[in-house]
Write a structure and sequence with these properties.
The structure holds two protein chains of two kinds. Chain A contains two helices and 28 strands. By secondary structure, chain A is mostly beta strands. In chain A, the strands form seven sheets. Chain A has a four-stranded antiparallel β-sheet with strand order 3-2-1-28, with no helix packed on it. A four-stranded antiparallel β-sheet of chain A has the order 4-5-6-7, with no helix packed on it. In chain A, a hairpin with a 6-residue loop joins strand 18 and strand 19. Chain B is an alpha+beta fold. Chain B has one domain: Beta-grasp domain (Ubiquitin-like (UB roll)). Chain B is 24% helix and 21% strand. Chain B has a five-stranded mixed β-sheet with strand order 2-1-5-3-4, with no helix packed on it. The longest helix of chain B has 11 residues, at 25-35. The N and C termini of chain B lie far apart (32 Å). Classes of the chains: A mainly beta, B alpha+beta. At the A-B interface, loops of A face helix 3 of B.
Chain lengths: 392, 85
């Protein structure tokens, strides 16, 4: 009898819950994984754009229907595809992100791929931001149909110097990423550049402030830490429950900042020394600003960028980074040489919270209890570049 | 004139051979884009450069400049470069 009551209670818990959709972008196409109400079974919908490099797939939380995909192929130029029926049909952007044409005699830049997509403020319907490789910032005001350079940074001589050349960036190109919109103020934005540091505007992009104080620089070597050029933020996440708190997974460690302070604090020093605090992704809890997760990688010697020791694990903190807990139950115990890229880890909004990540080896993993137990929900996908969640 | 289209761009044209007009290569690509919106930016970047992995041949000769004049009798082939193994 007690068992029956427990089962009934369990059903009641999940009844009425909205369903989670995982938006999976890979090197060879996109997939949508539709979860049931209990997040037990997942229906794969894909591939979409088979053979296209999809950097990110994002559903607009403001209208619940506009889905954008940042795409390119090995041979063709980049573009953005748009769907308003959750991927049943797609239409290409009429004007994808593109830099301004350089004056005659000068060498201009070309967008290699759109890397990052961020829906703007809730009070700005149909406005989106995009970050590109090489580093560029773009904005659409019509739901992703047409894109224009945003603010002056794309052609600003100082920013161009900080951005460096294609050789200064990550192996598949330098990137502008982690475009964050303050939910209290649509004119208050942040972004990160790999390389090029962290930047903030409070006036809708008219002026920008560099935010790199407290961050270590690559390898030391006497590089000037005051120069954005030497900084490589991998992933920035603002806490939805406290927009004054931002966590950062950087090339040089895990950091946190609590505004109005302008100084980052390296909370990754509390990570186990054998693991270190290098990685790409970072996820914050939507309702608790002290809870966050990272997925460390090997940043020693030649930077294998794989799970340290071939033993993958997420690490979570529940106290803002004072202490970290290893979360590897259900994950392989050895010989698993994964990388989880900066966009490839996400959470849903359920209680208890679901965590998800995709690997460079094409596996999609989830935890329905905040990382305490993991299970693989898809294998043999192409290299996973991004995992985002949507609620339907 | 006749323009041969690589398979990667059939999602725009629906076939491998299409008709388009233009007195220069730039004008031809603009006409293609009018007929098949979006196709030009996949071929040519915002600095008016043919993309790294695309090749354009006019009557069998590779062409890099968009100002190249064209006649109605010219045959234009847009191809994927043999890059990537």
């Amino acid at each position: 009898m007690a068992t029956s009551r427990k089962k009934a209670s369990s059903r009641k818990t999940v009844a009425g819950k909205k369903r989670t959709v995982l938006l999976v972008a890979t090197r060879k196409g996109a997939w949508l994984f539709h979860g049931d109400a209990a997040r037990k079974t997942w229906r794969a919908d894909g591939p979409h754009f088979l053979g296209h490099v999809i950097s990110q797939l994002v559903l607009d939380p403001r209208d619940g229907k506009t889905l954008l995909a940042a795409a390119k192929t090995g041979h063709l130029g980049p573009t953005v595809f748009r769907s308003t029926d959750l991927g049943k049909t797609w239409k290409e952007a009429a004007q994808p992100p593109a830099f301004a044409k350089a004056p005659e005699g000068e060498k201009g830049r070309s967008v290699d791929h759109t890397f990052w997509l961020t829906p703007a403020h809730a009070n700005e319907p149909n406005v989106w931001y995009a970050g590109t490789s090489p580093q560029g910032l773009f904005r659409s005001e019509d739901g992703g149909i047409t894109w224009k350079p945003f603010s002056t940074i794309n052609d600003d001589p100082q920013y161009r110097e900080w951005m460096g050349t294609v050789q200064d960036g990550t192996p598949d190109g330098p990137k502008l990423h982690s475009i964050i919109v303050d939910p209290r103020d649509p004119k208050h934005l942040y972004f990160g550049m790999s390389g090029g540091g962290v930047h903030e505007t409070r006036d809708g992009g008219k002026t920008w402030k560099v935010m790199i104080k407290g961050l270590d620089v690559v390898e030391g070597f006497g590089f000037d830490p005051a120069k954005p050029t030497f900084h490589d933020p991998h992933c920035l996440r603002m806490c939805p429950s406290n927009p004054d708190r931002i966590y950062q997974q950087n090339h040089c460690g895990i950091y946190r900042i609590d505004r109005p302070s302008d100084t980052w604090v390296r909370i990754g020093r509390a990570m186990p020394k054998t693991i270190g605090d290098i990685g790409f992704p970072l996820v914050v809890h939507p309702r608790n600003d002290s809870t966050a997760w990272v997925f460390p990688m090997d940043g020693t010697s030649v930077w294998p960028r794989t799970s340290p020791g071939g033993k993958p694990a997420a690490y979570g903190t529940k106290n803002g980074g004072k202490t970290w807990q290893r979360l590897d139950a259900g994950l392989p115990k050895s010989q698993a040489w994964w990388t989880v890229k900066r966009q490839a880890m996400a959470c849903d909004a359920h209680d208890s919270l679901g965590l998800y990540f995709g690997t460079t080896s094409g596996e999609l993993w989830m935890s329905a209890n905040e990382g305490r137990q993991w299970r693989c929900i898809a294998q043999h996908l192409p290299e996973i570049y991004a995992v985002d969640t949507a609620t339907r | 004139m006749n323009v041969m289209i690589p398979s990667a761009l059939h999602s725009y044209t629906g076939r491998s051979s299409v008709e388009a007009q233009g007195s220069t290569l730039a004008a031809l690509l603009a006409d293609l884009d009018r007929r098949y919106p979006g196709i030009r930016f996949r071929i040519v970047d915002e600095q008016e450069q043919v993309r790294r992995h695309i090749r354009i041949f006019i009557n069998g000769t590779q062409e890099f400049g968009l100002s190249r004049p064209l006649k109605d009798s010219d045959e234009v082939i847009i191809a994927q470069a043999l890059s990537g193994g």
